[in-house]
Amino acid sequence: MPVAHARTHTSGASRAARTARGPWRRTAVLSAAVLGLLASALTTTASATAAGTSHSTAPTTAVGSCLPSAPAAAGSPYQRGPDPTLASVSATRGTFATAQLSVPTGNGFNGGVIYYPTDTTLGTWGAVAIVPGYTARFADEEAWMGHWLASFGFVVIGVETNSRTDFDTARGAQLLAALDYLTQKSPVRDRVDPARLSVVGHSMGGGGALVAAERRPSLKAAVGLAPFKPSGSPTADRVPTMIMGGTADTTVTPSYLDGLSAALPATTESAYLQLTGADHLFATRPNTLEMRILIPWLKTFVDQDTRYAPFLCPALADPSGVSKYRATCPLLPAGTAAVDRATQAAGQADLR
Fold this sequence. Notes:
Layout: E1 3-5, H1 30-37, E2 42-44, E3 54-55, H2 86-89, E4 98-103, E5 112-117, E6 125-131, H3 138-141, H4 144-150, E7 154-159, H5 168-184, E8 192-202, H6 204-215, E9 221-225, E10 241-246, H7 254-262, E11 270-275, H8 288-302, E12 322-327, H9 341-351
Helix pairs in contact: 5-6
């Protein structure tokens, strides 16, 4: 089903060093430009996932994937699944079988879908709420992520917005409402750890994810996929935040994301990357490049699973398809023992 997108953006100043960050300034014409070009459309199609089905998600095994594992998470009670490898994080399914259920409208958002691991022997799971971009529907564009992420050990709620033209602030509020529904009212609330929640969004929804992080600093992770944040720079974001864009994105341009990422506080754990040749709609299509980076980020900060940190630090373990990457290495999830740069480097060497 075709879904229209439209948005306009200003470019932020590019900064090479994280420590040299300064505040990102919005231009005086931002509001007028947004309203002027939000009517133009980009179209894409993606398969919607039917509600009420279960999926068998046995791990995909790649030839030559028996690589040494990264260091185990020291004392993390949330570590789930076998030791990760470059092959396993690139697989389209993790080790857990999954199921899904529909979410009714109301509760502060327009319903959606929950995807969850069916295993009940390992305790509760961390959660991820995902919201789509301007004029888009989760069912059409991000549903492909649902079973994929759930099979790696997360409960996922895909959020449909109250209005398809909601801006970033409204999408951020709906992400938080969806997490509250998931942990307090949903049929799977007993499977979710309310202390380990995260948000993901695309485009205007990516801006919404950054808004949600600013409003609820107890979140464990936030991911903006080509995020557009017309409400302002994320200078109040204290949540570990990843910003991912594409070098061929003419809607949310690389220079805009340079400025957005540079506005994150220097004390906030963060990562910023540009996918080579990716356009604005890369997140609306199934792709392993995005997920092999996003999954270690969520695992590191939502599950406090430092086995996944060497995939991201001191550099990407697999940099193919990525033209720019920087992160606040070493990545230290809250509640874990300090993992220094040498330890993460040693783990990355083992992955190779």
